[in-house]
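REQUEST FORM: STRUCTURE PREDICTION
Request ID: SP-0412
Submitted by: Lab K.M.
Chain count: 1
Length (residues): 138
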Amino acid sequence: MLSVRLINGFVSIFILYAFVSKKYYLFYSLLILSFFVHPNSSVLMCIVLLAVSTILALNRKIKPSVIIGIVISGLIGVIPTLYSLYIFPSVDNLITNAEWYLNMINDEADDFSLLYQIAYKIESIISYLILLIATYIG
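STATUS: Completed
RESULT:
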C-alpha cells in the first residue's frame, strides 16, 4: 500500500540522487514536488540541504548558487501551504483539546508510541529485526 511516508521516502531518495549527481534542475523540481507530498518533511529536508550545501560551498565543492536555488525552491514549495492556512476560516473552538489529542493518537499513533507498534504492528517489528540480523550476519 502506498502511504504518504513511502512516497515521501522515494521522493527523498530521488532528491538526494539528483543533488549528488549535480542534476540541479531535477533536484529543484523534486524538492518543490516534495512539498506537495509532505510539507513538514520537506521543510526539514530543505534545512538539512541548506546546511550541507553551505558547508560544501564554503569548501568550494559546489557553487553558492545551489544555496540560492534551495532557498527559492523551498519558498516556492511552502507558498501553497501558507496560502491554504491563510484562507482557512477563523472559527472559535473548532475542537476541544481532548478531541485534538485523541485525533493525534489515532492519526499519528505510529509516531506517538512504541507500544502501539508492538501491539498493532508486530509483523513489521519482526520483519525489521530479521532484516537487521541478516544485515549484520551478511
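NOTES: The two ends are 29 Å apart (CA to CA).
Reviewed by: T.R.
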